[in-house]
Write a structure and sequence with these properties.
It is built from 3 helices and no strands. By secondary structure, it is mainly α.
Length: about 150
């Protein structure tokens, strides 16, 4: 906001200076106390003229300082955001790894539990399969007219 105000004042000053009529010859005279001028215009003290010249010369440096400050501020903010995201990524990766480790341990525990109690009823399933198969064949034979 301060930068815009300073730039605005500088531009107003620049516009005011540039509206010197085209037919008027620019003239520079050293004015001493009590002397008469040959033209109408603004009289500035040496300090005021020095300030105008210095402000004009230093305006670029001021702008560059403001740009550098803004760049450093944004760079620090973006670096903070990037580091925060890196920490979050690391945390999520560690969480994922621990969940996968727990899942693997649970699968191993369930496999061991299943192997400790083997299914010894295989002969019942085999006999059931023969009975269902034979019944299906007989039903089809009798259904087709046989």
């Amino acid at each position: 906001m301060q930068f815009k105000k300073g730039l605005k004042n500088f531009l107003i000053f620049l516009v005011l200076i540039s509206f010197v009529p085209a037919y008027a010859k620019p003239s520079i005279q050293r004015v001493t106390k009590g002397s008469m001028l040959t033209f109408t215009g603004w009289c500035l003290s040496d300090a005021a003229m020095a300030k105008i010249i210095a402000d004009k010369e230093l305006e670029g440096q001021r702008c560059q300082l403001k740009v550098d400050k803004q760049r450093e501020t944004l760079s620090a903010k973006f670096n903070l955001d990037i580091n925060t995201l890196r920490v979050r990524l690391s945390t999520v990766q560690n969480e994922h790894d621990s969940i996968m480790k727990i899942k693997g341990e649970e699968i191993e525990r369930l496999e061991e539990a299943a192997l400790q109690r083997p299914n010894n009823y295989w002969y019942l399933f085999t006999a059931g399969g023969f009975v269902v198969g034979a019944t299906s064949v007989l039903v089809i034979i009798f259904a087709l007219g046989g």
